[in-house]
Amino acid sequence: LPSLDCVAGAGGGFTFSNAIPFATNVTVGGAASSGTERWYGAVTNLGTLTMTGAYTVALSNANNNFVGPLVLNCAAGGELRADHLNALRGSGNITISNGTLRTTPLPDWDIAWYLAYNQSGRQGLVTGSGSAWTNRASFYVARGASSSNNALTVDSGGRFYCANGGFVGFGASFNSLIVTNGGQCTLGGNWGAVGNGGANNTLAVTGTGSVLRVPVNILAVGGGGGNVLRIEKGGQFEGYVYLGGNNESVIVTNGGRIVGGSAGAGLLTGGYGGVNWGSPNNSKIVITGNGSYLSGCVWSRLGTSGASPSFADNQLIIDDHAV
User: Fold this and answer.
1) For a FRET experiment, which of 52, 54, 113, 219 has its CA 20 to 30 Å from that of 258?
2) So what's the pLDDT on residue 261?
């Protein structure tokens, strides 16, 4: 089936009960304002799924599924639900320009969702105030040593929510999560990380109205060197950030802010989150520029330190009218 043009009828939509391993492009469209399409079975090698109507489309299967690339541009209220899948591992880019992508694991499963798993060059985009990606599991922008140059961008009022920890470059290098131009990103769960065994990963919050929230616990930056959390140009981070590892950095500049009821920054040592962070060395927190500031506790330590941790050349720099 090279394409499906599904228009909901008076009976409330369509149900597809057979496995549909699409290798070509699939279009779900039409002008109807209601209807539910349900695709069951091995949703593998999907091709490009483009939704243009106000549909609810559910992909449901308990096997290991690879879904994508995906273009989601619904009418108001349109929603794609990837329910009860073992994993969502991107086989292509994901673009949400209107509507909601809702990813939900099976109950009581410790399931993760991936933009890239040992893959390179995958791009995710959530853009526009009518766009959202709601993830009820752990989320990885990139995982695995073969993952590089993958990026998720939350832009122009788009929203991304992760309920159980968000990770940028888990054992992977040169990956990024960018929240910009009023984008909203929330990483819930026990903790999140930039790096965690990988190097040169970036989490950036840039532009007035752009917000990254870590409401429950901490965001760890570190693991392989060169990882950075950058808050700039009026962007805002709400939560607590810790540096763990060597040559890692948190940069708050040009009116960026770290705020919140449990906000602050510090050093992560020894064991935390099942990871041995060792002792930070040559890492830095820089607050610079007029309007930039960090509120809350500064330079505390978290984790089990071991026998005798050694810290060297870590820096906290506040300059150029920052507070």
Assistant:
1) 113
2) 62
Q: Is the pLDDT of residue 107 over 70?
A: no
- Quote the CA–CA distance of 124 and 217 in Å, as a whole number: 25
The alpha carbon dihedral of 167, 74, 205, 293 has a sign of negative
pLDDT at 295 over 90: no
In the predicted structure, residue 190 carries a pLDDT above the cut 90:
no
Please name the residue that has the structure tokens 């002008």.
31
pTM of the model: 0.84
SS3 for 13-75 is EEEECCCCCCCCCEEECCCCCCCEEEEECCCCCCCCEEECCCCEEEEECCCEECCCCEEEECC
Categorise residue 321: left if φ over 0, alpha if ψ from -120 to 50, beta otherwise.
Answer: left
The residues near 214 (Cβ < 8 Å, ≥ 6 apart) are 186, 187, 188, 192, 237, 238, 239, 240, 241
Q: Is the pLDDT of residue 104 over 90?
A: no
